Amino acid sequence: MQKDAGQRLDKYLCRILPEAGNGFLHKMLRKKNITLNDRRADGAERLAEGDSVKIFFSDETLLKFMGRTALPEDGQAKNAETHGDTELWTVSGVNDTALLRECRTAYEKIRGVGILYENEHVLLADKPVGVLSQKAARGDLSLNEWLIGYLLASGGLQEGEIAYYRPSVCNRLDRNTGGIVLCAKSLQGARMLGGVLRDRTIRKYYRAYVKGTVDGEQLIEGYLMKDEAHNRVRIQPADACEVSAVPESLRHSYIKTGYRPIRTERDKTLLEVELFTGRSHQIRAHLAGIGHPVLGDYKYGDKEWNDRYRRGFQVRTQLLCAYKVAFPQLAEPFADLSGREFVAELPEIFARVAEETGERGGRA
Questions:
Q1: Cα(73)–Cα(95) distance, integer angstroms
Q2: Out of 175, 218, 224, 326, which could bridge 203 as a Cys pair, Cβ 3.0 to 4.6 Å?
Q3: Residue 24 has pLDDT above 70, yes or no
Q4: HSE (side-chain half, CA atoms, 13 Å) at 86
Q5: CB atoms < 10 A from the CB of 96, how many?
Q6: Mean pLDDT of all residues in 167-189
Q7: What is the DSSP string of 282-317?
Q8: What confidence tens digit (pLDDT) does each residue in 137-162 have?
Q9: Residue 187 contacts residue 5 (beta carbons within 8 Å)
Q10: Residue 58 above 70 pLDDT?
């Protein structure tokens, strides 16, 4: 139960027995039909590595509450033994064959993912341009599936564990934005990453080529409005109206973006952008809204300018990369990440477009 360490027992049971209902599960705990380390439990206990959860249900009842029609394959539900007219299952996982196959396929087919850092709880992946962070449609293969496939191949995840905790990405990048994606391997890792993202104590930096000359460091704010039908967003600048005049429906969509110029190269500027809030298309729309669209961005950018770079430098996607993250001070078991920065290499296309002025677009 290493990956479930720290989770409440009742929450764990609700996840592995989704059809049972919270009230029923607590009744089973009181009657010792479910035990923790062979003792009565009330559900509020926090799981620790090495804990044993035992469920005294018949096969039929167990399957019904798991929402399944067949028992786990041999070796996936371990330590089954006869117990009167029921079976005792020390629940250790269910082999979801289709999911496992999909994740292994993603690991084989998605190439170029880098690993900047990994411990037992988290993994920092360097996502290539063109790879989805999460599925957009049924049948997609994304970094989420690649992550599970990688952990299965490396021994960081056992097949049976997939039913109880599914490693996943914790922040998303657009398909055509490359760079650092934060991934949780364990429940503890997911809680830590979710916490630092939610309270914005982890700092996220991007590099982007934008149109025109940008002078000086700036902090810009606004409100983001989604157009779901066209997969676009629109920005209302914060200084266009008082906060009290902002419609209630928009106040939760507040955005904040900081940037500073690294260098200017003829008709464009290389920026470092700090993302203080994380909304769909925030950087692209926010920079376009102030007259500095990202190079290669056809949704929000300048088509004629983009076309020139497409013909001359094969720029086919937006030149935007999540290149650096900086962690806050953290306690155990994350002290090894405390105060550290991680930096990814910029895609080669950044260097290619910089050759126009004899500059190199790597790490500045």
A1: 7
A2: 326
A3: yes
A4: 13
A5: 18
A6: 93
A7: HHHHHHHHTT-PBTT-TTTS-HHHHHHHHHHH---S
A8: 888 999 999 999 999 999 998 887 77
A9: yes
A10: no
Tell me the two tokens of residue 211: 């149109």
pTM: 0.73
- Give the residue range(s) of CATH 3.10.290.10 domains in the chain: 2-90
Secondary structure E strands in 27-94: 34-36, 53-57, 81-83, 86-90
| Homologous superfamily of the 204-357 domain (CATH) | Pseudouridine synthase (3.30.2350.10)
Number of Cβ within a 10 Å radius of residue 50:
9
In what helix (H) or strand (E) does residue 233 lie, and over which residues does it extend? strand 232-237
Residue 27 three-state SS: helix
Query: What pLDDT, on a 0 to 100 scale, did the predictor assign at position 60?
Result: 67
Return the CATH superfamily for domain 97-199.
Answer: Pseudouridine synthase (3.30.2350.10)
How many other C-beta atoms lie within 10 A of the C-beta of residue 281? 20
Closest CA to 120 of 272, 235, 261, 5: 5
The reported pLDDT for the residue numbered 170 is: 92
The pair phi, psi for residue 172, each rounded to 5°, is -120, 145
62 and 19 Cβ atoms separated by less than 8 Å:
no
Residues of each domain in the chain carrying CATH 3.30.2350.10: 97-199, 204-357
The chain-wide mean pLDDT, for the chain, equals: 84
Look at the domain 2-90 and name its fold: 3.10.290
